[in-house]
Amino acid sequence: MVLQGQAGENAVVGRDAFDEILARLQERGYAVYGTVNEKGTGIFRPLGGAGELSLRCTGGTLPPKYLWYPPSETMFTYDRQSGALRSEIEPVKQAVFGIRPCDVHALLALDEVFLGGDYPDPYYRARREDLPLVVFNCVESGDTCFCSSMGTGPGLDHDYDLLITELDRPGRFLLEVGSGLGGELVRDLRAEVARDEDYQVKHRRLEDAAANARTTLETEDLPRLMSEGHGHPYWREISDKCFGCANCTSVCPTCYCADIFDETDFSLTETRRKRRWSWCFLMEFGAVHGGNFRERRIDRLRQFMQHKLNFSVGQYGRFHCVGCGRCIVWCPANIDIAQTGRTIRGDA
Amino acid sequence: MTDRAEKPRLAVFKFTSCSGCQLPFLNMETEILDLAESIEVAYFAMAGASQPGPYDLAFVEGGISCQEDARRIRKVREESRILVAIGNCAVYGGPQALRNFLPLEELKRAVYPQPELIHCFPTCQGIADYVSVDGFLNGCPVDHGHLQDYIVSVMLGKAPEVSTRSVCLECKMKENVCLIVAEGVACMGVLTGSGCGALCPSFDRGCYGCFGPSADPNLKSFANLCRELGLTEEEIHRKFRYIVNNAEAFREEAERHVPQPVES
Ligand code: SF4
Ligand code: SF4
Ligand code: SF4
Ligand code: SF4
Question: Based on CB atoms within 10 Å of each CB, which residue in A163, A164, B151, B257 is the most buried?
């Protein structure tokens, strides 16, 4: 068969289709990023060819969040002589090839933070509006993944341009088209017709991945139980180990806090107002005139985890932990948010 | 310079140190030209300026190690409106503060052919032990970005940004793979203030702690981690008796791990 390029279409393709999709994204002017195996993990990098893509779910170090919410950016410049303000917000064309379902859910959570409400964030919007997503479903969970507990994976059924699931044989993939743009990326591609059995394989593999998840957390009633567990002795136990290094929050795909500051050159002609990622785990985060409202490490640790497993539900109606497991992997003190949730709720 | 009629007068002084913290000024290259437009470099021996005080902003490199240092730092204090300690030596006493933990006379004999010619205090200390200090910029050496921010902030009359982030965050932004997690290396990045751009971890070396303790370092947990990674008490001791040995938190942690007697 030949793909028509319509939303809702599907087919079975080989890995060679990835090269074509990547090439078409690049032709359309997108900088395409994907996870590349590097230093023993998957790292989001600009992709040269589709052959570089890692097909295993590895989480990596930084989530792809930096593409739509950069670690540091200039909001506007201020000419100190004329007093004029200049803000250059240019639309950015980027695409992610092989983003995972948990990271798509994290993106949707950030959409609510930055674009929901009366004052949408223009910087975020400039990077978000044109952001094709080629999603890889996870047919195998990593050791610290608990997306199946958080309802964010291992499969996705919305908000993708293209959705790719590896079938029973390596090199055979079910391709599902989710949007008009997704369609354009595969129009006229030669492919096999997807049969019912292919769908059965997809569903079985995703169910297996969920069933075999090595990290789990029951979310039923979790916010209430977390609130009640505010004084649980486990907080003390883990904060005694915690370095307060903020590695955990720095790799979290949903952390959105920032610090705003000014930067001026020696000539004193121009000031740039910038924002950069900041986290509740930092001492400076709670430093206000006359004191610090979160001076103790235990309070900073608890704020991080309570925000993810409790407060976010009250604020936005969804958990801001998408179960990606990155904070667990990269914590040098082996502190584990899923374990904490289980312990506080009495399941451990 | 529009905000002020006269250019502020800048001074850079050196005490007991290796001079490495003065180099970031000289390395500013193009910025230094802009700087010279807005500021008067009144005293900076390495750059050939030696005008008398008073100074609006004085940066001090080096620790206080002898009577002459002590006399001179008091004079610098009197002549300077804002006095800032830059680098490990001025902030904590520097690598040479290692001598604080050993008997001075024995050390003199071990190092110098004519030990009787050496006149120094038994300890080398940061300048805040002798005079009041308005700001501290850590590092071994100090970070150029921190210096630039401090100077500009003073010129604009605003508070400088003083980050309390750990080296780990610079490490993460470089997408390094954590050495503690992946290699079992007892990297001190988790305890150490940022500024170096995670230089050593980016080359697979554990952090040596050059920028001194971060805002709330968990030393006990780090010592436990070192033990789990197989370090001996002596090795843990030496981790804290190294580049930044005289910061209170590191000094006290070293004392908790069996100091070894020195051979003389
Ligand atoms: S990564 Fe671990 S040790 Fe570091 S702040 Fe987070 S919980 Fe604490
Ligand atoms: S809290 Fe941890 S597991 Fe949850 S989304 Fe953030 S990094 Fe992932
Ligand atoms: S966990 Fe902390 S840094 Fe992350 S979004 Fe919540 S308050 Fe901000
Ligand atoms: S390698 Fe060192 S500096 Fe980097 S994250 Fe790990 S502990 Fe922190």
Answer: A163
pLDDT tens digits, residue range A56-89? 776 688 999 999 999 999 999 999 999 999 998 9
Question: CA-CA distance, A199 to A196, in Å (whole number)?
Answer: 5
Nearest residue to A323 via CA among A141, A108, A112, A65: A141
Cα–Cα separations (whole angstroms), residue B57 to B33, B128, B207: 18, 16, 32
If one counts every other C-beta atom within 10 angstroms of the C-beta of residue B247, the result is 23
Atom 6 in ligand 4: residue holding the nearest Cα: B178
Give the gap in angstroms from C-alpha B53 to the nearest C-alpha of chain A: 23
Structural contact between residues A115 and A125, judged by C-beta atoms closer than 8 angstroms: yes
CB A47 within 8 A of CB A34: yes
- A196-203: long-range pairs with CB below 8 Å, 24+: A198/A12, A198/A167, A198/A174, A199/A174, A201/A167, A201/A168, A201/A174, A202/A137, A202/A155, A202/A165, A202/A167, A202/A174
Q: Is B35 on the interface with A (CB under 8 A)?
A: yes
Task: Identify the CA nearest to A44 among candidates A79, A94, A113.
Answer: A94
- Residue A324 beta carbon below 6 angstroms from any ligand 2 atom: yes
Q: What is the pTM assigned to this prediction?
A: 0.94
